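Predict structure. Chain length: 275.
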Amino acid sequence: MTPLARRRLLVALLLATVVAVVLDLSGSGLPVRARSLAAAAVGPVQRSVAGVDRSDGARLEEENAVLRARLVQAEARLAQSDAAGRLLASPSAGAGHLLPARVVATNTTVTGGRQVTVDIGQRDGVEPNLTVVAADGLVGRVVSVGPWSSDIRLLDGADAAVAVRVGSGVLGSVAAGPAGDLARSPGDLTLSLVDRSTVAVGDRVTTLGSVGGRPYVPGIVVGTVTSVDLPRGQLTATAAVRPAVDPSRLDVVAVVLPSPPATGTAGAAAVKAQS
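Prediction complete.
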């Protein structure tokens, strides 16, 4: 109903009410039937106005709900866009060609670690054993790939040992869990050195790199040394490492795609012609 029609209904209702009040005050002797006819005329008007109000209120509430949902979606897209931009501008971008992805699911593996699913797969060029990074550093590696999605194994599982370089060049490996009977803060990794070198609190830990860059490319930040364990008769030192990436806050990540093989002039021309 248009605003003009609604105003007309309200005016008619007001006039009818005024007439009824005047009749009552004047003690008019109108027949009872006349009063009944007036009530019969006013009643539908009242119901019509009330119905319009309820209908409009419900419609406005539905529109508000739709607008709120759209606002939440827009804010989520903006946050993901900002995260992707931060990722592409981060030191992790120096690892090679990054393919951004969004985390869509998470679950626990049989080794006690976590695994996440992202929304890119074979159709996007993803393959098993590729490095996965976030803006702050290493996330994990691709363990399985489907047409539209991929599973990423994080660093907190028993099977997620990573060869690393500490500080100025000390070599070692990090893995989930404590070294022997040592306690670790939740989420911390254990660094084990490969020789009698030493490390210090605050040293940055980065990936050493695997042959062919699989599963880990070199130079990605893994974390920071937070404490060095006291000697306990072991041959090499151990330390606690706080991961650079919080696995509970993953949203936008990126798969490091392998670089295309080098080609000669003829090969480059063929690739260009095919594209």
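Summary: The CA atoms of residues 122 and 147 lie 5 Å apart.
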